[in-house]
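Me: I keep going back and forth on a fold encoding question. No explanation is needed for now; the record alone will do.

Assistant:
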Amino acid sequence: MLGARKTLTLVFSIITLFLAAYGVYGALHSPLFWIQVVEVNDQPEDAPLDAQEVVQLASVPVGNLSLVDLNLPLIEKRLLQNPWVAEARLTKRFPQTLAISLNYRQPRALIQGRGGKLRYVDSGGEVFGEVSLKAQPDLPVLFGISERAESSDSESATVADALRILDYFAKPDLVAVSQISSLSWSPEEGFRAWVTYPYRAGGGDVTKTARAVVHLGQRIDDEGDAQFERLKKVFDYLARHPVPARQIYAEASKKIVVKTARGS
């Protein structure tokens, strides 16, 4: 009898646990927990995607799926298919809300590829997306630069090489006296940067903007700091004098040569 009672108690315990689990399962899959809201949080003002575009990209089945059953990795995969999305964070907020927060790629430059099509380059050297006029139209443009990630050889310069030059031009001392608009590379002439800068005109009383081609040589080597420090001094001088330059030869390990608009 004692053994039968123990068996009966065990059976009732299993049934009770089963019914409890079934009840919990049923409750979690009831309409009370169906997804009703998709929130897009922490959107920057200049985000390349608006909230509606993010929701469409996520393609969450609102109104007919429990939040419990939502496949977050699948939704993350959909979001990451957009070239602007670098990272996606998804949070289930019970009872009925999915929250989405995105980190976007930050474009550093534009690059002209085969066929003349322009794409973006981020700070890590990743080439992505097609250029939109509403998203960073004033970035410097790279011409003749290989998109390949491997080290440069004598026949090409990579995005990494170009970004190193852009980093020099982004230093505060150079930003104060110059702005790079485009950068090209060719086997014959190496790197050439098109740079705008202020100079004194009208006897030194008026500040105007001039544009010069800066020849930087085939490669930016370990002497790059010294090379761009010399270039900064040149732009400092030009900013204080009424002599617009048109060509600036600033190859590493060489004296800088400046050709003015009058060819002197």
About this structure: Residues 18-28 have pLDDT under 50 and may be disordered. The chain is about 30% helix and 30% strand. The longest strand covers residues 190-201.
